[in-house]
Specification:
Blueprint lengths: L2 H7 L4 H9 L5 H5 L3 H19 L1 H14 L3 H15 L1 H4 L4 H14 L6 H11 L10 H14 L9 H7 L1 H36 L1
């Protein structure tokens, strides 16, 4: 899962949105210094990744991408999931994308003070560059894969990712729509279990 899908699954709570964002940027000692409510978002991020990485439908799609992208096939699929969520938005959300986008931006801005200085400086540029909606365009995907190539040890394995996507577009869309309702349900169960645990802790205190 990439940013858009993580934010969608964490959208009920601004602290969870912030935690899902910071989980990709901070190292463990930095994460441990975050407020408790943001740490819940970090835990949710890790749970989303755990479910996704081990799911048979996801593994099937990774195998589809593996001939072209090798060990980076899971990374490519993470980014493509955001494309397919954007293009299936009305299927999964009753709220307009613009409303969701603004809520995410407000959530991240409200926790900007707990971010490291370099991220605090970068955040405004990210928020006002049509960052999230760019994942729904071929141009946005190409830009994202280009940035990933600059950080990859084997950048050649990310070459042609948008072409691979176009080649397998229908199969990837079908796979996404088979998997995403299941991750929504699994995350809902995780949230319910967390709520029960907090209620129990409150009764014991």
């Amino acid at each position: 899962m990439n940013f858009l899908a993580h934010f969608f699954l964490a959208r009920e709570d601004p602290a969870w949105v912030a935690g899902n964002f910071l989980a990709d940027y901070l190292r463990k000692p930095q994460l441990q210094a975050l407020p408790a409510e943001v740490l819940e978002g970090v835990a949710l991020h890790l749970e989303i990744d755990r479910i996704t990485d081990s799911h048979p439908l996801v593994r099937q799609q990774v195998r589809l991408l593996h001939p072209a992208h090798g060990k980076y096939a899971p990374v490519v699929l993470d980014v493509l999931f955001d494309y397919h969520l954007w293009h299936n938005w009305a299927r999964y959300s009753g709220a307009p994308f613009e409303e969701f986008e603004q809520a995410v931006f407000q959530a991240l801005a409200s926790y900007q003070h707990v971010m490291p200085p370099d991220l605090q400086q970068r955040l405004p540029r990210m928020l006002y560059s049509e960052w999230l909606r760019s994942y729904g365009t071929v141009e946005g995907l190409a830009f994202t894969f280009g940035r990933l190539q600059r950080r990859a040890s084997r950048p050649e394995w990310l070459e042609g990712a948008t072409h691979t996507h176009a080649t397998h577009l229908a199969a990837l869309d079908e796979g996404f729509n088979a998997f995403f309702p299941q991750i929504i349900e699994a995350v809902g169960n995780w949230k319910a279990a967390l709520s029960l645990k907090k209620e129990g802790d409150g009764k014991r205190s």
